[in-house]
Amino acid sequence: MHFPFTPRSAIHRWLKVSVLLAFSSLFLSVQANILDNGNFDSGFGSWEIDQESGRFLTIEKDASGDGSYILYDQRSDPDVAVSFNQALNFDKEKKVTVSFEYFSDTAPLLLVWQGKKGKTTHQVELSASNGWTAYSFNLSVSKDKGPYKLDFLPGAAPPYTVSGRSLNPSIAAKTGFRNIRVVEKSEDTTIAPIDEEPEPKFTYTAETIVHKTVGDHELDSILWMPESVTGPVPIILWVHGGGWGSGSPVGNEFRARFLIERGIAVFSVRYRLRKHGGVLSDSRQDVLDAMEWVRQNKDKYNFDLNRVGLAGSSAGANLSSSCAQLIPEANLYIGFSGLYDLHDVGDGRFGQPSNGVFLDDRNAASAAHNIKDNPPATFLLPDPHS
């Protein structure tokens, strides 16, 4: 089947993402590890943990036999700010890759501090994840600006102020981390292309777009646009996860970069969360209105409305899948670890009645019950970094 979303099959491209990630993980495993004791097989080791945080952190053996992990379980005193960190020193300027795996029923945070005054150079806001999920990002470091410190905040964000923004207090949660690695990126890390010839990689720009305002609440989404694309630009609306209660568009860049660099625009959509007092149908409407913004700005950005896709993970997969059945232009859907039938949620916490009145219409929120006559080409996967 030839699907006209990219010069080759869109499904083929997404299979290639998985293959590239697998090769990347293999490569990282044989590089010199700058960070010690990232798998916790030897206990806390060189990780710095204050006495208060130590009440809520333990080393556990993975049931699958894949080594040990650090477990944060803070149910008794959710107001305590818990963290574990490790200092890193570098002898020269270099580029490194930070990678780890985690699971969490909240939205943990990782901060990279730099220098003696603790300037924040990198902030990672993770989404809730029921199973082990891999995450990685790149850093440029310099011995003149160090030392650096990796600071994991497993119970969502303690009351820190980062980049002028006050983060939410810590909450009761259960979170695990394992296989924390920092490796130097060598000059010969290029992975051989799967296709016969290498594909072009476009540079891209990021633009904050307020696609909708509800009362005083602005829904500021992010548009990543590839530069110097010849002809109309295909676009994917990407919807973040977080159990409908956390997450933001910012964290989707690492997932979307593969597409953007190959000439596909990605619109990372912000929608109302439970804490904003809305219901699930409000969140779904926010995504539909993001598509309306795309229609209204078709000429300005040269969007190709014949090649429109939606994608999302976890709660974002639920929202994007139901919207893909409602958006006439949608001809591709990619979902990661989503709930596509809210009448059948299994034994997990995700989607259970404990979410209260937020789940106002389970039938309308279930893509499986609302498949349109000409549904988009659909590809359902576990999380792309798990």
How would you describe the overall organization of this protein?
There is one protein chain. With 386 residues, the protein is an alpha+beta fold. The chain is built from 6 helices and 18 strands. The strands form 4 sheets. A 7-stranded mixed β-sheet has the order 12-13-15-14-16-17-18, sandwiched between helices. Helix 4 crosses helix 6. It is globular, with a radius of gyration of 21 Å. It starts with 9 loop residues before the first helix and ends in a 5-residue tail after the last strand. The N terminus is likely disordered.
Largest sheet: 7 strands, mixed
Radius of gyration: 21 Å
Quaternary structure state of the chains depicted? single chain
Distance between the termini: 28 Å
Q: Let me know the average pLDDT.
A: 76
Continuous helix count: 6
Q: Which percent range describes the beta-strand content?
A: 25-35%
CA-based shape: globular
Run of helices and strands: HHEEEEEEEEEEEEEEHEHHEHEE
Order of strands across the biggest sheet? 12-13-15-14-16-17-18
Uncertain runs with pLDDT below 50, 5 residues or more?
1-32, 187-198
> What structural class is derived from the secondary structure elements?
alpha+beta
Portion of residues in helices?
10-25%
What are the SSEs and their pairings?
Elements: H1 10-29, H2 51-54, E1 57-61, E2 68-74, E3 84-88, E4 94-104, E5 109-114, E6 119-125, E7 129-141, E8 148-153, E9 161-162, E10 165-166, E11 173-184, E12 204-214, E13 217-226, E14 233-239, H3 253-260, E15 265-269, H4 280-296, H5 298-301, E16 303-313, H6 315-324, E17 330-336, E18 377-381
Parallel strand pairs: 14-15, 14-16, 16-17, 17-18
Antiparallel strand pairs: 1-2, 2-11, 3-8, 4-7, 4-11, 5-6, 5-8, 9-10, 12-13, 13-15
Helix pairs in contact: 4-6
